[in-house]
Structures are given as C-alpha cells and as structure tokens.
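Support case: phosphoric acid mono(formamide)ester complex. Customer-provided input:
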Amino acid sequence: MKHLLKMLDLSGGEIIDILNLADQLKYELKHGIPHSHLLKGKTLGMIFQKASTRTRVSFETGMYQLGGYPLFLSSNDLQIGRGEPVQDTARVLSRYLDGIMIRTFEQKEVEALAQYGNIPIINGLTDFCHPCQVLADLMTIREFKGSFDGLKMCFIGDGNNMANSLIVGCLKVGMSVSIACPDDYQPPKEILDFAVQYGDKFEMTNSPMEAAKGADVLITDVWASMGQEGEAEKRKQAFAGYQINDELMARAKSDAMVLHCLPAHREEEITEKVFESHADEIFEEAENRLHAQKAVMVKLMAD
Ligand code: CP
Ligand code: NVA
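Agent response - structure generated as follows:
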C-alpha cells in the first residue's frame, strides 16, 4: 500500500491490518505506552479546500503523537488556490514533505497528486469518497460488535462520498450491505458495478423501511454535502423520509448500533432522540478517526 486514495484500492486484508494497528495504537495511547518514535522527524502537509473539524484536528494531533510535524495548508493561502496545477504542486511538495493529506472536491485531483508526487497521499475526503472516515467506522463496528461476521450495515440517504466508501469497505470486510436512497441520488456506476459482484450481500432500494430490516448497524449522513449548499432546499424535499428515527430503528435488530460521520443535522437525516441514545457509539466513532488515521500514517510513512 503506497497511498490511501479510495477504499476500492484496498484489499480486505489490508483493511484488517490497518484496523489491527489502529486498535493497538489506541491501546498504547490509553495506557501511556509511548509511540512517538514511529514517525519521528516526519512531516505531513494537510491541504484543505473544504472546511473540517474532525479531520484537521485528528490528523494534526495524531501526527504530533507519532513524533512528526503536521503543516495545515489552507488552499486559500496556497498557489493551488490561484490556479497552480496540481501536477506542479505535487512535485514541489514531494521535495519538502514525507506525506500529504488532502481534502478537496474532485477525486481526480487526489489521484493526480499521487501520480505526479513521490510521497504517500491520503484522501481526507473528496466528493467521491471518504476512506479515513470509513476506516474509523469499521474500527468502531468491530469494537462494539466484536467481529464483522454475519453483520448487516444499512445506509440511509444520499448515494454520496460516505455511502460509496461504506459500501466498498463493509463488503470487503465481509458484511452485508443494504442502502436506501432516492432514485435520483444513487451511488455512481463504479460503486454499483463493484457491489453487484457480491450478489445478494448487496441490496439497494428506495425504501428506508425495507433496507433497515434486520440491520446490525444503521448509518446516515447529511442530505446536502459540502459544495451542495445551493441545492439544500431541493434536497430537503428529495430526502424527506430518509431519516433514522424510532420507526426505522424498530425494523432493525434490537441491539443495532447507529453511526454518523458528523456533522449531523438533527431532525433531518436523524432525530435528536436516536442521535442522543446512540451518542456513545457516534462519539467513539469520532475518536476513532484519530487512531485509524495514525495507523494509516504509520503504514504509509514509517521507515
Ligand atoms: N467526519 C468528518 O470528516 O468531519 P470533518 O468534516 O469535521 O473533518
Ligand atoms: N457527505 C459529507 C461528509 C462530511 C464529513 C460532505 O461531504 O460534506
């Protein structure tokens, strides 16, 4: 593994290796076992073309805990924000840094950084996918459920970056996946073509009640993602009913867990009541961003 560009690039075994290391790093951190030698003296550039709370703070803190140095690079202050090509940015930054984390709009920009640079590239969210988040989600599912065996993950809402990465990640570790989204908001063909290879382990419907049947894990995300603010009103109408609420929870297993990548819009994609009754899981998931990303950085950047 040279980069983390999308879940499609990882094998099931590579995902499990990252999760095992993430569990170990979490244990070490909680028990005061030092691991600041792992990336001692390494630098990570973090390019942000979109807002972030969790991704920025967890990468920055994680790099510090591993003995390295994180540089926050807002695209507004980089020449990339004034049109310098990503191919040139990649070749320049490769000469200063040991790794780059980038959050941007187009997946092809992340792929171009990897193609033209010669240091590890980590995708911190694009319109197409959010692999760091889904590694943390998988870590959280395994932590609460003990294993992935026989589990069903149900995603309700937009066929967006979160849905795309969850479909791929959950299928690769052996879970079943059901997704409920409006007909006009299905995941892209590349993801559906991947998922159909898994036969009846993958189901897609436009009925949330149908999708939630017997689910062990229910996940949702905002109706309008970053960059789609102008469509918010139209999307509110299209997604009405695509909500995790008590009625939907009653269709899932009685011990079903609920995850949300955050930020959450209460009373839109999830009710306040369901959110708060699953807050332990949701905030453990947020914490696990730190541990999962530290594992990714160690795998990609350690000597
Ligand atoms: N879930 C997530 O990526 O959060 P941020 O947008 O705050 O980084
Ligand atoms: N789908 C959301 C995820 C935020 C972490 C977005 O792209 O804005």
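Strands lie at 43-48, 69-74, 99-103, 121-123, 152-156, 176-180, 202-205, 217-220, 257-260.

Case will auto-close in a few days if no follow-up is received.
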